[in-house]
Amino acid sequence: MGLTLQTNSKAGNDAVDSSGIKYQIKSRRIIKDNGSTQLSAIRNLETQDFNYLIAVLFNEMFEVGLVVKLPHEIIGKIARFSKHINTHLLTLKGAVLTDPLVENLTSIFPNRKEIDLAVLKQKTNPETPIKKTHLGGAMDGKLKKLIQSVGKGCFVEYFEDFRDETNSTADLVELLVREKGFTENACRTRISKSRKIINSGDAEEVLQNISESSRLPYKVTTKARELLKKILLINMCMVR
């Protein structure tokens, strides 16, 4: 897509193109127990911090199923505003997908597993409730045990340190002992389990699970979403 990731935290936008046009990126993973296509909250829409919203739907295997580009000016019209949380909520379904100003970019992704738009364009049946869980998408038993050994908060807080292979185990042990007061053995366990999750390609699933949790602190779920968004954007920027 020719986008460049913002190097620093920017309010309301995650990437820019060569013309300086700003993009915010939102994503959602569709799983068998939760088929909702509602994106995470779009905050401070009135400040116009971005020009376009890129919305991405993944299937259960984190394969790209749908990518659409929406101009800022239509979001206030097609998204639902929630006074309770003071934010706009956008669901990729129905009229949203048929709006002539919404551009479908899915075809530029070579490994896509396209989602049936005919299904998404149908109106939601209020008599068919969507099953939800406190922890978002369910992880298998082995993955759940791994993240429990690390601690979800620890995994998110030190994710980028764990992912950086230039950081030795000894350096990471020293960091965790200094900042968290864990024993050396506890540090080594957390480091090895975290890197096993990351190297096996399961990090996105774990971060998605954490980001959808209603039991974890807000700062943890928020950072998990930011990390997911960053990973997504890096992958998208590789597609030219």
Helix/strand-derived class? alpha+beta
Number of helices: 10
Rg from Cα: 19 Å
Q: Strand content of the residues, in percent? A: 5-15%
Question: So, CATH architecture of the largest domain?
Answer: 3-Layer(aba) Sandwich
Determine the CATH topology of the largest domain. Answer: PvuII Endonuclease, Chain A
The unreliable regions are: 123-137
Give the C-level CATH assignment of the largest domain: Alpha Beta
Count of strand segments: 8
What is the mean pLDDT? Answer: 83
List the quaternary state of the chains.
Answer: single chain
What general outline do the C-alpha atoms trace? Answer: globular
Helix content range of the residues, please?
25-40%
Strand line-up in the sheet with most strands = 1-2-3-4-5-8
What is the H/E string?
EEEEEHEEHEHHHHHHHH
- Give the count of structural domains: 2
* Biggest pleated-sheet summary: 6 strands, mixed
Tell me the distance between the termini.
5 Å
